[in-house]
Amino acid sequence: MAPDPDPAVIGLSSAVARERLAALGPNELPRQRPRRLIHIARDVIAEPMLAMLLVAGLAYLLLGVTAEAIVLLLFAGVSIILTIVQENRTEGVIEAMRDLAAPRALVLRDGEALRIPGSDVVPGDVLVLDQGDRVAADARLLEATSLECDESLLTGESLPVPKSAGIPGGIGDTVFAATLVTRGSGLAQVTATGARTAVGKIGRSLAELESEAPRLQRETARLVRIAATAGLGVAALVFLLYGLLRGGWIAALLAGIATAMSLLPEEFPVVLTIFLAMGSWRIAKAGVLTRRAAAIEALGAATVLCTDKTGTLTMNRMVATTLWRPGDDLAATTTTGWHPRFHDLLRHGALASAPVPSDPMEIAFHEAALQTGAGQNEDLDLVHTHGLHPDLLAMSNVWQAGDGTLRSAAKGAPEAIARLCRLDGAAHERLDEAAQAMAASGMRVLGVAAARVAPENATSPHSDHAFELLGLVGLSDPLRPGVREAIAECRAAGVRVVMITGDYPATARAIAAEAGLAAGDLLTGTDIAALDNAALASRIGTVAVCARTMPDQKLRIIEALKCRGDVVAMTGDGVNDAPALKAAHIGIAMGRRGTDVAREAAAIVLVEDDFGAIVTAIRLGRRIYDNIRKASGFILAVHVPIAGLALLPVAFGLPIILGPLQIALLELIIDPVCALVYEAGDDERDVMRRPPRPPAARLFSAQMVIRALAQGALALVLLAAMLLWAAQAGLPATELRTLLFVSLVGAVVAIVLANLSFRSALSWRRVSGNRALHAIVAGCTAAVAAILWSGTVQHWLGMAPLPPGETVLALAMGPIILACLTTATALHTARRQWA
């Protein structure tokens, strides 16, 4: 229970609180202004392809071709609306997530305790603190009763920190915003709110860090800019030549727009957006939320994964793992439980704890006693409690049994328990040896003792009781299930795992060994402070564990790894992790324990704090990158015949075959192929058995570009030959358009199949298992049937029925191109094998 307020402590008046809130602002970190709807719409309409569709639609209106104008404007309008709605929804979700994290606080106003939103707390308010409360602001303690706070989210220290009032200038009399009261109660006067708190200062450092744009996004944007510049230049040339040589500047404008649309690979941004959005959806099913979708793909390229210990690799709860009794060796916990000879030790450890525990170590004592059946204390009544004292770090409880006898149970630091038990030199030495052996394994070690108490001595100092040493209990924060297997998978995938923790070196080493981290050096915060940035970058390459690190040192470690050329992922849950989470290429925050600051700084949030979900994200990231490469190869290849056939009539004086409408219809095939078929593709078999791709590796490698251009050139040669033959044979323009368009649809499907796998030109496994491909092929078949045999569709598209021979040729062109591509790939593969 929280303490009754001292009559002299009445807190602020409501009027003063309102004035301070108005003057100083709410008790929250500054928020980024969300983008307004008009700004989202402006950015969407600025996309080149949408702008060209709008211009083409207006041009058709000027020509009086209403049907084509309506179709083009409809395409553009639907794309714009869908994008705006999705962007606006994303902005709203981010704001809603922040609002859900707002804490509440119990304060004294006008002498009365009031529960108010944490954002309304102001300096001078008196906070009423009780166990389980989240502290709303930095505050100085006025009263404290056995108060302890979990500051791990702020400092990285896994154990609760004792607090006491009346020590001016010391951190022991200060509680910090975002920390948790784990034991006791108190009153504290607020000294800082919002950005002025310790949490806020870290938040301000985040504002100085700029998140890097994902490398894949930068590379794709650069290619699109180059292609757009070249395409618009060629389109302008076509516009001038057509207008000067043939007359009719509106028709020339449409020819120029068609050329620009055929040359502009606007599908690349579509691929990135859709693949990463679908990746976010897929990974969400595994318990991973994505705040910045590009981080999923980047995680697939990670070479180093830096992880916090407390709450990330471990459960963030204490468990009794090792016991010792005088005359025995150390005994570790087993799946069958503790031997009966330890039951008395565990029972008295629970009796020396609070009856209703909130401290993690006392909870561990109660759980261990209950597991052995030794924790049934219904027949005992608590008579008196002796708390911790700076001169003797031990506490004890005096219990009365049903028969009236009194018994005291004590627990505390081994040296304090040794004093209570008045051990002789040899016994004290054996106790020290056992305690040091446990501590060397990274455990928190507490001694337990018991004494019979005379009724008249029930409330006398516990140092007056004749305690008998029962033994030592080693407590540790257990490893999360699946962590060891997840780290092993990371290692197999070539991802180095580095632990960064605020805990002591012995604890860090023990957890690292249990988790199966690769052997490596240990670096302490003191070591890091003694190294300059260059020396740290040189040293960090062999380090597996960093212990006793401060928040700014975590940031230095991340920057040092980035200087080495690593792609760095960082996991964490505390405010102290936030700067490093933001500086890393991929920041991964824990969702359950994580602070709002950590989640805002991170790109990925683990809903269930499951470290193993990171491996799922790495696998998905690599799959996304592979499929983006396949889709990119398809995009480059398919634009070659489309661009060539848009330019060919201008060069040879033929009628314009592919106008904006026909190219827009082709995009209705190409865009779903990019967005659905390749996104749904299976993993490559070696996706988690190969090292991460080199950080300097380019998505558009020379090998990929050459292969894609060769595929497109082969299709263009066959289609151009067919077009010139048909024109020479005197086929009318409307029939030429039908022949060429149907053949192009077949060519698109052939290039799709040729790029489904890196290993072969045509993989039956990938064809049979890809439902999106089945839907696309069915849609293409229906579209071709409508174009060939529906007079209404032909009229709308400016086409005409084909003679039987040309119909067979148009339908056969796709299989012919696929056979040529398959043969070329087989010959290339055979040549590489023989080389």
Question: How would you sum up this structure, described in words?
Answer:
The N terminus is likely disordered. This protein folds into 5 domains: 121 residues, Calcium-transporting ATPase, cytoplasmic transduction domain A (Distorted Sandwich), CATH 2.70.150; 64 residues; 156 residues, HAD superfamily/HAD-like (Rossmann fold, 3-Layer(aba) Sandwich), CATH 3.40.50.1000; 158 residues, Calcium-transporting ATPase, cytoplasmic domain N, CATH 3.40.1110.10; 205 residues, Calcium-transporting ATPase, transmembrane domain (Up-down Bundle), CATH 1.20.1110.10. By secondary structure, the protein is an alpha+beta fold. The chain has 29 helices and 22 strands. An 8-stranded mixed beta sheet has the order 8-22-21-20-9-17-19-18, with helices on both faces. Strands 1, 2, 3, 4, 5, 6 and 7 form a 7-stranded antiparallel beta sheet that branches. The radius of gyration is 35 Å and the shape is elongated. The termini are far apart. Helix 25 runs parallel beside helix 29.
